[in-house]
Design a protein that fits this description.
Layout: H1 12-18, H2 22-34, E1 38-41, H3 47-57, E2 63-66, H4 82-93, E3 96-103, H5 107-115, H6 121-124, E4 127-130, H7 137-152, E5 155-164, H8 173-186, H9 193-197, E6 213-222, E7 253-257, H10 269-281, E8 286-290, E9 304-307, H11 335-341, E10 346-349, H12 351-354, H13 359-378
Parallel strand pairs: 1-2, 1-10, 2-3, 3-4, 4-7, 7-8, 8-9, 9-10
Antiparallel strand pairs: 5-6
Length: 379
């Protein structure tokens, strides 16, 4: 990090006011509310385990990172499947869903991969990411697809149907007299007495009556409305919203994969700079980066940064001591180094929490350490 960008000395609350993306502004506010800048990488293999860790560890995190294509038993039902259930847990515990898809292809293909197919990622994931090796036009294509998706679902139709048989006391006396007067006006003047005797009788001799009334009411309501249920077919209580903040906006956000934590990564400085340029050109869609350092350079850069490869030494050991890699190319750094020195905003932790003897306690340990590093950066 060549210089200390102004965003590094601003609180998340202040950065929420300056954010160029609505979802970034919401996320900064959520981070302040929960005193958390922790993202959990849900490194599990079944849908059941995924929903379990999201429910149990959700209170400690602000972002849940998923790999839906690694999950066995993923239910693709858009109404009550795995994505819908994750969205319900995100509302309940106050976190955003980040599908780590790493899109990279021609524009038309990524548009379809993002908005259609079996998973329909855009429906349930607030955030996704992309590798721009295919060119910056791919980012623009994804931005267009997200804008069309939001326009298409901007309003939903609520339909209410009621069926019932009215009873006599449902009518006012005046209404009954008015109906009799109208009926007499419609009767033929030259009708016979036999016809009159059959007044109000059906062709089979039975007295006519109103059997039932069906009322169909339709209304259009913005999907942003807190009154509109976001899922159907889920268990009671799944529409609970985390207290202290409204639901996130319907906007979708993209993180550009600008740098990686793996050993021997081939992402060059030119590639990273191209990510910065693409982000600036698509501020309405690009929230920020997955990177190893702060890439905000221009005075008006307000992008958010998330960094994987974060690990703490075991409890009781030197906090900033050496942390071993996983032997498969992953390299680790501590929250203090990534946030205070490198300038990232959110640390991404997976196996360090998931594989712990007590994942909940370990998630809280990471949350406290990461938040402490952020506070120290402000001093």
């Amino acid at each position: 990090m060549s210089s200390r960008h102004p965003t590094l000395t601003k609180s998340f609350a202040d950065r929420a006011k300056d954010a160029s993306h609505p979802l970034s502004a919401y996320l900064f506010r959520l981070m302040e509310l929960k005193s958390s800048n922790l993202c959990l990488s849900a490194d599990v293999h079944t849908a059941r385990d995924l929903l379990h860790v999201a429910d149990k560890l959700g209170p400690s995190i602000v972002v849940l990172k998923t790999h839906y294509d690694l999950i066995s038993g993923w239910d693709y039902n858009p109404q009550n499947g795995t994505g819908a259930k994750l969205a319900a847990l995100a509302r309940k515990h106050g976190f955003l869903i980040f599908e780590d898809r790493k899109f990279v292809d021609i524009g038309k293909t990524v548009q379809m991969q993002y908005t259609a197919g079996t998973a329909r990622i855009i429906d349930w994931a607030h955030i996704t990411n992309a590798n721009i090796d295919a060119g910056k036009d791919m980012v623009r294509a994804m931005a267009e697809a997200a804008a069309k998706w939001k326009e298409r679902i901007h309003y939903e139709v609520k339909t209410s149907v009621t069926v019932g048989t009215p009873v006599s006391d449902q009518f006012e006396d005046g209404e009954e007299m008015q109906m009799d007067d109208q009926r007499r006006k419609l009767e033929p003047r030259d009708r016979s007495s036999s016809q009159a005797s059959r007044e109000s009788r059906d062709v089979d001799g039975r007295k006519g009556s109103i059997v039932s009334i069906t009322t169909v009411t339709q209304s259009f309501e913005s999907v942003d409305s807190p009154r509109l249920s976001k899922t159907t077919g889920l268990a009671e209580g799944d529409d609970v919203v985390f207290p202290g903040i409204e639901e996130p906006p319907m906007d979708r956000g993209l993180l550009l994969l600008a740098q990686m934590s793996s050993k021997g990564c081939l992402m060059t400085k030119d590639y990273t700079q191209a990510c910065v340029e693409a982000a600036r050109e698509n501020k309405a869609f690009v929230m920020g980066y997955v990177a190893q350092e702060c890439l905000n350079q221009a005075p008006d850069d307000t992008f958010i940064h998330m960094t994987p490869g974060c690990k703490l030494p075991p409890e009781g050991e030197e906090e900033n001591g050496h942390v071993e890699g996983d032997g498969l190319g992953q390299q680790y750094n501590t929250p203090a180094k990534l946030i205070e020195i490198c300038g990232t905003d959110i640390v991404i932790v997976g196996r360090g929490i998931i594989k712990a003897d007590d994942p909940h306690s370990e998630a809280e340990r990471y949350r406290r350490k990461a938040w402490k590093a952020y506070q120290a950066r402000l001093e």
